[in-house]
Amino acid sequence: AAADFNTNTNSGNNNKDETVSNVLLSMLDGEVHRLKTVERSQQDGMERKDRDNKRMAVMLSMSHDQLEHYTARNTKLHEEVTSKSEELRKADTTIEELKKEVHSLTEDKRAIRTLQAENETSAQNSLVKQTTEVN
User: Fold this and answer.
1) Which helix (DSSP H) or strand (DSSP E) does residue 39 occupy?
2) DSSP for 79-128, written as a single string
3) pLDDT tens, residue by residue, 87-120
4) For residues 28 and 62, what is the distance between their CA atoms, to the nearest angstrom?
5) Alpha-carbon gap, residue 21 to 9, rounded angstroms
6) How many Å apart are CA 90 and CA 96, to the nearest integer?
7) For residue 46, what are the contacts with CB-CB under 8 A and spacing of at least 6?
């Protein structure tokens, strides 16, 4: 009977051990599943970040290319504006010189008219004098 008791006790202990083992295995399976889920989630997050980083790199590259393009364009436009400004300064100088020349020609024209008027007056006086002498 003692042997049967020990067998039953051992058998009961084996059942308890097996139950504990099954519970522990189930807990370990749950923990492994949880860790795999966490790992998958972290991998998904890293892949998403990697895609975002690649997209940002492309955008930055495009922005850099656009910046270079607009910088070159701005430089070219600045050179054109500088060149046109120089042309305008030269044209302004020429206009000022032409205005002075027109003013001078206008003065010369007045002087010529004055001389013509004086000559006509002198000629008329001379003609009157000659006519008076002839009469």
Assistant:
1) helix 2-134
2) HHHHHHHHHHHHHHHHHHHHHHHHHHHHHHHHHHHHHHHHHHHHHHHHHH
3) 999 999 999 999 999 999 999 999 999 999 999 9
4) 50
5) 18
6) 10
7) none
Instruction: Report which residue type is found at 135.
Output: N
Q: What's the length of the chain?
A: 135
The strand ranges marked E within 11-102 are: none
Tens of pLDDT, residues 104-113: 999 999 999 9
Tokens of 19: 């139950």
